[in-house]
Amino acid sequence: MILRAMLCVTCLLPVSGMAASQQGFPDRVIRIVAPFAAGGPSDTVARLIASGMSRNLGQSVIVENKPGAGSVVGNQYVAKATPDGYTVLLATSALPISAGLYKSLPYDAGTDLTPVGLIGAAPLVLVVSKTLNVHSAADLVTLIKASPGKYLYGSSGIGSVDQLCAAWFASRLSLDAVHVPYQGAAPAIQDLIVGRTNFMVTTSFPLLPFIKNGSLVPLAVAAPKPIPQLPGVPTMAAAGLPDFDVSVWYALFAPKHTPGDIVAKLNEAMVAAISDPDVARKLQDLGTVTAVDHTPRHLKQFLASEQKRWGDVIEVAKVPKQ
Length: 322
Fold this sequence. Notes:
Elements: H1 2-23, E1 30-34, H2 41-57, E2 61-65, H3 72-79, E3 87-92, H4 94-101, E4 113-129, H5 137-146, E5 152-155, H6 161-172, E6 178-181, H7 185-194, E7 199-203, H8 208-212, E8 216-221, E9 247-255, H9 260-275, H10 277-285, E10 289-290, H11 296-317
Parallel strand pairs: 1-2, 1-3, 5-6
Antiparallel strand pairs: 3-9, 4-7, 4-8, 4-9, 4-10
Helix pairs in contact: 2-9, 4-11, 6-11
Pfam families: TctC
Protein name: LacI family transcriptional regulator
Signal peptide: 1-19
């Protein structure tokens, strides 16, 4: 009887320890895992959110980069982490894309991650080199249709958002253009500038310096309305695609089974960070439009819709599964 009572008390210890941990959360450093290399847009967003959350929580929030396999390495790391709120994922559109791109994954984005909240999204921009001497999306479409297979579009890699968006753009308009993958957006942009490729679809942030100096010409934004960074640039409706809305989005996820009160604290801190005027201004400078609904419930629904959409795009773009 005594042994049974001792065993019962022992069984309760981890539970009471977890409850105490929840009550004092956070009492140590929180890590936001960015599944891409340091220096890129997603890493910058992660650091902005981390600084804002740190001020709200009164605890250090740091960014840890775990790049590899188009975000799969970082996604898996968080999916397998202890669900105590101290390891959080800065996810991007690459999360649902990976689900459609790989034959198998070591995690399920829909069940192995707990939604915390959607931060915002950066609409993609259709750009050409000034050497192409094209000044509208309609003119680009006419040019490509006149010479099938001649024109090239670069991307940051096979299965990247920019490749899939450009391939979807070409498919929707029955364009025959050739994909040239690069190891990242920077070399793809450099080759576009000098005319080794002809067009590209990517976020505005890495493009703005070259648009400002005239090296690149923006033709359209893949958004419902023009964006503040490029106020004179029309939407894809100018190319005959009024419903073409594609962005790179950013969101926070925790491991599955993370307690609800901890998720609520993380969400509250994330929303406070986004609401900070300095953080909001810097996000806008990155071309990011903050989300209207930041709730975990909305993010869960949003992820499910994104998985279906990108699965369809991958099929249309005929990108082979890896």
